[in-house]
């Protein structure tokens, strides 16, 4: 309990630091890039709850992310709902999708589950592309609310994302250290054996898919206000899928620190590469780094650190 | 609005498309269906084959299908290398499921991005003497652009079927998919057999890529559209069943063609994934499953 309290305090300190950074008003690009990196902290952490702890590889990250984003677009279109409502609603809708995916795990394991999630992402994209109310395939622009705190809306979104990242990491850390995390680890290593030992595998899987989906939706909900123009190809971008799994893989999937390290390193590297080289080159780097890590250092950076300490 | 003429045309177009889809899916049917290797990068190899055909055609004027055939040894070698890396890094350590999948996903990304770095994101198409011709059978038009790939696709299916059933190596591949340790007891090396099978699967991508670029324009990210189709066909046809692959490919082709004729082409992509989700949820063993 004391450790959880300490984690929450550290989290609050990080949020306070984020707000302090926002009031400094340094180069606006810093907030712009920082938002993307923090968004990836949330995405990677969310992916890792299902992929790292439970061992179910989700290729459908874009589906959950975009569902969060499009829920927000829908609410902005219909009711001009404020940002906290958008985030809650986006999380809720994606959580429901996660719950549905969870039931799929009853029949589909391993590769088939992964392919089904990929399929889900494409089906959802097609549906959104044919839904004119939220812009269809042409996309649609979103007006940011006026008079944001901290001078500019992107700076405000940056602080919001700091808070969301802290929440995501605390949730992941809590799951990892509780009996839920141990149960998920048991079913990751051997689902049948875990079931036989009395681990409630279905309930745990449903929990993991729901929480993971919810956090991915939460990451997507502020997206319309960030880009101000939402179209299916950017919201359902496969880059989210590859980043969501590359970041935890690079950092290390067994602990909550892994996705954070991976997201910060890879996210920052991509931001640098996008500015200095080209956006295609940054995807190339992600692919190469991902394959290199998965072949040479399957335990990620955390595994490398552990190996160095062991010597 | 409804007309029988339109329906007949859509069905025929779908049948032709199905023959082509069979060609595209053979590789994954072999690699994923028989060897249980989740090579999600297979569509990227097909696109690589398409670009090989494009380059040979634009610089030497070679026929795409001829190029596809000429490049099969190169793709076979590529497949051997990829499988060796995969085996050494994952399969030997027994970590193939999760990390192997991620490995292939990364590979897909690397191939796709390399192609867009080299060729840009413009649509590329190969024109041949036969692409613009078509014959008319009582109101139903048959475009050579689709007919030729369909014929080649069916021929490829037949060739793979005969290879697996009649030749020594083909039977060895069937054996390795059934029981690896039994094969080892018979004195054969399962890894070597799997290397050959993987190589053949990638070699098939060379030819099917050449067919792809003569049917429709290709950009590097076209591979994403085919991930769903390939796996839908393999799962629907029954894992590793070559005949089933052809049947499932034709079903998918007709379904997509009907969908795009009557509801608009933007829905046709959802068909394959819809069929895939349905097949996975209702009958994971597929139509002709083991």
Overall tally of structural domains of chain B:
1
Specify the oligomeric state. Answer: heterodimer
Structural class of chain B: mainly alpha
Secondary structure class of chain A reads mainly alpha
Describe the global form of chain A: globular
Q: Order of strands across the biggest sheet of chain A?
A: 1-2
Biggest interface, chains and residues, is:
A-B, 40 and 40 residues
Mean pLDDT of chain B: 86
In percent, how helical is the residue content of chain B? over 70%
- Give the helix level of chain A as a range of percent: over 70%
Shape of chain B: globular
How much is the radius of gyration of chain A in Å?
A: 19 Å
Q: What fraction strand of chain B?
A: under 5%
List the secondary-structure elements of chain A in sequence, H or E: HHHHHEHHHHHEHHHHH
Residue ranges of chain A: pLDDT <50 for 5 or more in a row? Answer: none
Largest sheet of chain A: 2 strands, antiparallel
Number of strands of chain A: 2
User: How would you write the strand order of the largest sheet of chain B?
Assistant: 1-2
Distance between the termini of chain B: 43 Å
Q: Quick one: how many beta strands of chain B?
A: 2
SSE blueprint:
The complex is a heterodimer of chains A (311) and B (290).
Chain A: H1 2-24, H2 28-53, H3 61-79, H4 83-104, H5 110-129, E1 140-141, H6 153-177, H7 179-189, H8 191-196, H9 201-220, H10 223-227, E2 229-230, H11 232-235, H12 238-251, H13 257-276, H14 279-296, H15 300-310
Antiparallel strand pairs in A: 1-2
Chain B: H1 4-34, H2 42-60, H3 64-91, H4 96-119, E1 134-137, E2 140-143, H5 144-166, H6 168-178, H7 180-185, H8 190-215, H9 223-237, H10 242-262, H11 268-282
Antiparallel strand pairs in B: 1-2
Helix pairs in contact in B: 1-5, 1-8, 1-9, 1-10, 2-3, 2-4, 2-8, 2-9, 3-4, 3-8, 5-6, 5-8, 5-10, 6-8, 9-10, 9-11, 10-11
């Amino acid at each position: 309990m004391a450790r959880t309290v300490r984690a929450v305090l550290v989290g609050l300190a990080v949020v306070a630091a984020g707000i302090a950074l926002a009031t400094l008003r340094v180069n606006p690009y810093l907030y712009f890039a920082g938002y993307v990196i923090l968004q990836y902290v949330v995405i990677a952490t969310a992916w890792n709850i299902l992929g790292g702890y439970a061992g179910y590889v989700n290729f459908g990250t874009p589906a959950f992310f975009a569902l969060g984003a499009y829920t927000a677009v829908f609410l902005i279109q219909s009711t001009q709902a404020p940002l906290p409502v958008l985030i809650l609603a986006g999380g809720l809708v994606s959580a429901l999708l996660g719950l549905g995916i969870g039931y799929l795990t009853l029949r589909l394991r391993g590769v088939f589950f992964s392919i089904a999630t990929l399929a889900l992402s494409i089906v959802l994209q097609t549906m959104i592309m044919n839904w004119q109310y939220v812009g269809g395939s042409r996309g649609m622009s979103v007006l940011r609310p006026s008079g944001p705190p901290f001078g500019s809306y992107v700076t405000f979104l940056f602080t919001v994302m700091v808070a969301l990242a802290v929440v995501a990491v605390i949730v992941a850390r809590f799951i990892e250290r509780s009996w839920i995390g141990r149960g998920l680890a048991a079913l990751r290593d051997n689902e049948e054996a875990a079931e036989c030992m009395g681990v409630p595998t279905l309930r745990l899987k449903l929990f993991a898919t729901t929480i993971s989906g919810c956090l991915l939706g939460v990451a997507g909900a502020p997206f319309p206000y960030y880009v101000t123009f939402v179209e299916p190809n950017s919201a359902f971008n496969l880059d989210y899928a590859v980043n969501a799994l590359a970041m935890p893989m690079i950092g290390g999937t067994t602990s909550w620190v892994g996705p954070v390290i991976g997201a910060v390193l890879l996210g920052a590297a991509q931001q640098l590469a996008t500015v200095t080289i080209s956006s295609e080159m940054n995807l190339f780097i992600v692919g190469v780094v991902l394959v290199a890590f998965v072949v040479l250092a399957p335990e990620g950076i955390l595994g490398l650190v552990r190996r160095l300490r062991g010597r | 609005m409804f007309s029988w003429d339109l329906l007949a045309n859509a069905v025929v177009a779908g049948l032709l498309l199905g023959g082509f889809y069979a060609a595209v899916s053979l590789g994954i049917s072999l690699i994923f269906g028989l060897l249980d290797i989740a090579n999600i990068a297979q569509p990227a190899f097909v696109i690589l084959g398409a670009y090989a055909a494009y380059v040979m055609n634009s610089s030497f004027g070679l026929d795409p299908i001829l190029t596809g055939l000429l490049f099969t040894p190169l793709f076979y070698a590529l497949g051997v290398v990829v499988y060796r890396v995969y085996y050494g890094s994952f399969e030997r350590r027994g970590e193939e499921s999760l990390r192997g999948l991620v490995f292939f996903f990364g590979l897909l990304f690397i191939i796709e991005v390399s192609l867009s770095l080299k060729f840009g994101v413009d649509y590329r198409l190969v024109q041949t003497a036969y692409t613009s011709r078509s014959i008319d059978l009582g109101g139903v038009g048959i475009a050579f652009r689709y007919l030729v790939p369909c014929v080649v696709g069916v021929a490829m299916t037949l060739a793979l079927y005969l290879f697996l059933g009649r030749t020594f190596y083909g039977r060895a591949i069937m054996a390795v998919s059934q029981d690896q340790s039994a094969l080892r007891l018979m004195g054969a090396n399962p890894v070597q057999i799997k290397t050959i099978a993987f190589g053949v699967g990638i070699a098939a991508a060379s030819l099917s890529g050449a067919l792809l670029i003569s049917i429709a324009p290709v950009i590097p990210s076209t591979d994403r559209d085919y991930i769903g189709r390939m796996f839908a066909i393999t799962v629907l046809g029954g894992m590793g069943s070559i005949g089933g692959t052809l049947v499932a490919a034709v079903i998918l082709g007709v379904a997509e063609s009907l969908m795009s004729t009557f509801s608009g082409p933007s829905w046709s992509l959802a068909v394959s994934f819809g069929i895939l989700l349905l097949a996975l949820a209702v009958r994971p063993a597929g139509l002709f499953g083991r």
